[in-house]
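pinned: reference chain
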Amino acid sequence: MQVIKSKNFYLHTFKRILIMKKFIWSMFTDERGIISVKRVIGFTCALFLCGTMLANSFSHESIKPSDTLVDAVLGMGIACVAGTTVDKFSAVVKGNKEEKTEE
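pinned: its structure tokens
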């Protein structure tokens, strides 16, 4: 039995893909629409830490990476995410000061 999918199904799926693409793009861009390196590095650090934890759960303890290396990647990821947060809120404060000076 062959299932024929309607044109609306493909259109709905395409719209979902576009929405997801916009969401992923917005995760890595700042308020001006420019890709933020801190966000990309923070996301990459999180992926590496999750991959390392997953790989270590299926391997022997003798194969694990050094604790110093894992702590360094963790620190870099936290610093990037914290830096992005500070940038986001400092831009709001700077914007409010500029608006007050124009009035």
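why pinned: Residues 32-102 form one domain. The chain has three helices and no strands.
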